[in-house]
Specification:
Blueprint: H1 8-31, H2 34-50, H3 60-90, H4 100-118, H5 122-132, H6 138-145, H7 149-168
Amino acid sequence: MPAAGVSHTAQVELLYAIHHGWLQGWLRRRLGDPCLAADLSHDTFVRVLAKEVLPDIREPRALLTTIANGLVINLHRRQRIEQAYLDELARQPEQAAPSPEARALIVEALVELDRLLGTLPGKVREAFLLSQLDGLRQSEIAVRLGVSLRTVKRYLVQAFEHCCFGMTA
């Protein structure tokens, strides 16, 4: 793909014209859903278009499949999170069920929290989850992780700051 003398938009248009059909077919075979394949194919090119500068692309299909594969992984992660939330919601009394709009917002928040937790170091994330999901006291977490109580406190502060400030950014 030529980079010199050709506008960014023109490069993406050419990339789209040549490879869109192939990418959509690749996604359709991978996902088994033509509508979802069309959506993710579109999102792939939006990601390419959002790049400020396109380097000289020697293997355009490799670039597109790398981006699309990341989107597929994100989709599956989101589906797992949403299903876990819906499963938990099904265990609650019907009158406690949030509205569809509230459910959508909750799922978005859970997906973002999952993304943020995934960027934490392993022991920090584990300490946070042991505290918040398992309800363990800090002393119990210290024993479980084989670290000092002071380290657990530092881990929890780090996780809370990361999640709180990351959600607002």
